[in-house]
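Lecture notes, structural biology module. Today: joint structure prediction for complexes of two components.
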Amino acid sequence: MATDTIQGADPIIVSPRREDKLSSIFGWELGLLVGLILIGFAAHAFNMFNAPSFKEDEGIYAAQSWSMLRQGTLSPYTYTYDHAPGGWILSSIWMALTGGPATFGGAILSGRMLVLLVHLASIPLVYRIGRKLGCEVWMAALATLIFSLSPLSLTYQRLFMLDNLMVFWLLLSINLLLDGWGRLSRHVLSGLTFGIAFLTKETAIFLLPAMLYIAFGQRWRHQGRFAVGAWVMTAFMTISWYPLFAALKGELLPAGQALFAVVSNDPGPHVSLFEAVKWQATRSGGGLFSLDNMFWQLVRGEWLRLDPILLIGGVAACGINLMRAKQDRRALATALLGLLPFVYLARGGIVFDFYFVLAIPLLALNIGSALSWIFSRSRGPLAAAVALILLIGSGLLWTGSGDAMALLAERPTEANREAVRWIKANIPSKSRIVARDDFWADLREPFRGPAFPNTHSHWKVGADPDVRDAVFHGDWRRIDYLLITPDMPEAFEASGNELVMTALENAHLVKRWKTGGNTVELWKVTNDRPLDAGILEKAHKHISEHFEKDGAFFEKDGSVTSEAQSYALLRSVWMDDRETFDRAWDWTRENLQRDDALLSWKWQNGRITDEASATDADTDTALALLMAGQQWEEDELVDEGTRMVSSIFEHEVAVVNGTPYITAGDWWETVDDAPINPSYFSPYAYRIFAEVDPDNDWGAVIDSGYSLLFEVTESVLGHDNSAGLPPDWIGIEPSTGKFVPIEMGEKDATDYGYDAARTWWRVAMDYSWSEDGRAASYLEQSGFLADEVERKGFVSSVYSHDGEVVERGPSMVGTAGAIAALGFHDRPKAERLFSAQVLGGLQGTTSEMFWTPRADLYAQEWGWFASAIYEDRLPNLWTDHD
Amino acid sequence: MSFQDYSAWALGVWSVLLAVQSAHSISLSLYAWEDESKRAASRIPEDFEPPKNSFTLLLPAKSEESVIADTIQRMVDLKYPRHLVQILVIIDSSDEGTIAVVSQKLDQLHSAKVNSVQLITFDDEPVTKPHGLNVGLRHASGEVVTIFDAEDEPHPDILNVVNTLMVREGAPVVQCGVQLMNYRDHWFSSLNVLEYFFWFKSRLHFHATRGMIPLGGNTAFMRKDLLERIGGWDDYCLTEDADLGIRISAYGATIRVAHDDRYVTREETPHSIGQFIKQRTRWDQGFLQVLKKGDWRRLPSRRQRTLALYTLAFPMLQALFMLYLPISIYTLFYWEVPILVAMLASLPLYMMLVQLLINIVGLHEFTSAHGLKPSVLTSIKLALVYLPYQWILAFAALRAYIRHLRGVNNWEKTHHTGAHRQTSATG
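The predicted structure, tokenised, for the full assembly:
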């Protein structure tokens, strides 16, 4: 020991060098440490991306890391001094080094990866601190194991929370200060890392008394008067960067009290560090003396349940260490470190469960230290045995609980990933989404699809004028989607978030994802803003890619129907897709068209399998040809369409008692009662047909069709009553002209099913193009569907004529019909149905999207027609062509 | 990025560089306090070997009528066998006043049967301290040569200390501590004193570990044969001591740095601010000369060369630092720069504050090492004059630079009054 100095005390905490021989760390202790790190890695890494479910705070820090990385600002919104920014500055650097926030599958996961590394780095720190504070080797190892394996640690130390990063810096600071060589530079570095701990989370300051005690006790002679000063000065200066930052921004003090008047030219209201600290300090958690404050609630309800050994054992160990503080000042330092977190936790202010993170390593160290003392005379086997029993006991206690399974086996965060994936694939990227904070960064980042730059935090929508007023203008209608969990409405209410609450009241559930006890919901706000999701384009493309071959659109059994071809032709005209139209029409003309210009309805394996015609397909094809001819100025197409129109009247219209009725096909004459499919009735088309085919009385066909529709819908058709739904099929007795039920295979042809649902769509089209009063009256009769949507949120695929459910599940054509009908007189229900069934029913990725059943061409077509009529994108191209 | 942005970021980078430089300088200042081994390496033996080496003490003087007689007596009184000590008082022949005083003193010593002191005058050009030393070297008979300035007050046992170190460790060169003492005399005294304190107590030891030492002007002991081999001093160098140190280092000879507060050679600060500026200008200009001469390039390792470059250019760095301070402050409060740049620009300010605090703590370390008691007022005064002192240093550095550019290389002599002796008498 040097003798040439003037100051007194020997270092009191760590004895010089003897316990910190660098050489020992390269021997078997190194092996021990590697083992401890591996155990910590296994325990903390296993299933860490899947559980526990994301906390919103993790999302906030992910968002702020993202903002540092992508925007170079501390927060994507106004930085409110909610916390000092050291934590997310670190994580943004981490993200930059690892290739962006998406590298580990999401910004929060990237943060969790960092937290894992920080935990592993903390393991040798806890061990070394334990050794330096007087723990025997095995007790230091025990403390380290408790630090890693405590259920409290496994639960909270996986989270991307500032506390976890702060604890690392704090441990590093303690370890540096307890330098066995008394190096002055270590005091400086310790002060620096303590400052960084503070800048990571301010609560580190609660450890200051213990740090000062150690710094004071760690004076060495050779350090002279520089010892404590070096620590204090460095720590203070590092910490001072936070208020300096605020001062430079003119945000140290509230508006009107600026310290640097020169800086804050704008005297308007602004955030301030002072106000933020005041707010944090006064957030009440039930008061210091209440046994029902947040601290005691957490002790009883959470912490004791998760790990009674660490909590009770740790506090008891602190007591033991305090008792022997007089003989061993290292014990006093240890006890101080263990107890000070409780000053913070039990202060009566606001406390969250994960705040306990700060106490975990320090209580573990106390346990190690106290046990070392207890077994100091009978060390070895007994100590090891007790340690082992402690560990196994706690392990058993915990693994028996559901908490362990939840952490190790369940996948709650999977729902978040699925939701992000789906949204990126199916929703326009400019949508204004108000989301839980844990979705924020992943939606803003172009990853698994485009970036969603209009994603906003519900907190900010509620409270930040820059978002609430500047972005949303205080108007809930400006919100397109809400991405939330079922518990959030309570939070909206608690935070007085009127805007989001109103939006939610006016929203419809689009989709729900559920995994591992976690539920995520996407709601579409009914806001009359165009959806513009690109559904029509994507579905149009998808159908051609997956069902078409050289202009033929195949059903899953390998057949081609005139109906499918007619749908393809109509779609192509409306999508202005000449190529697809030409392919489809060429194929149809060559393979299906008969000499009379009508189409045979079925083709398979290279030949016509049923020559008969189907009126709906002929009508749709003729309409498509006429509109195409106008749209693309091809007279030939108009001529071909006109030829079909005449032929339809000639072969597919039955004149009964002088009234012309549109029948189901040219085969009507071969059966007793003329078969009529009400869903073939296309008045909007007939009005155009009348123009090109003036020789035939198409007006009479419209009139007869409407009378028939009203009558068959109202009459009971052999049931006790009518639900007000059109039947799939009906017949006309040629002799009397009466409407009678007919046999169509095994099914009851009076059912409202896959055919009849289209009726609404066609009538709605007529209203849209002609505003015929009969169309309006007919659509208004769809109250049954409105009731069904009200009751179940969807419309079943098949009902009997009296309204009994025959097939409960929804069908795309049924949904399309209901959307068409309800869109006319009950828009919110139509939107609800559209959100949940059409938009929410979309499956697949950005490159491919479809409705279920995937192989069902009919479902794809009616998904398209439903979207088209909902988005009002079916113009009359005969009159309104370009 | 606009020009404004570029200049803002350039300012940020510049600030960081300055702060790093400053932090490095701080770490060198505190090197001795880092750990036990640092002090152990510079330890002075507690017991002495029997006298073995013979010494020649060179005592160059110019216009030192008032102190020279006392100093000669002090040299004569050093505790070492008188037959092993040769004292050479070296005076240029035009300085008749000092020659007269010395002759008178010699007569007095002769009558007391003390014959180890000789007066050597020279009249050839240049009339500089290094030239005088070279003249003295030619007359030296001791195995070890050392220099004391006319106002120096070495420890009576200093020759025993050096003899012991040379016998035990075989060191060819030993640099012992020099310390200004009169910390309360002038407004700049305390900071000037602390410069010596940190230099000899701490920084020099770092240089020793690197094997690159700019020797001090006195209390440096060198084997005569080594001195002759490397050609003595540079007649024209304003800081012949630093120059010699670098040449010895480049030659590969070990320099043992020994420091103990009890054994320091006591000196005084310049007695006026004008003198202070002249002295500092001479040093800074001398460093520039040495830098330009380029002997440091012959140092064997890159780390040594870097350290030499850093040390010799340091006065200029410091000047830049101080000139930058107003810019830093202006930036912080008035210039609309990105917040991060403003934060970075504050770093040098932080470092300056750290240096100030270190100086205040250092003042207490210094006074307690020498059994003095500083008043609270001294610390406050130190804080108040800290910045002006730094600007004086910066001014001297710039002045040196300008003189160097203009080729003005004459020696501005510092006057001595023996103020430290009064301090130690009352302190």
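Point to remember: Confidence is low (pLDDT under 50) at residues 1-10, 15-23, 258-265 of chain A.
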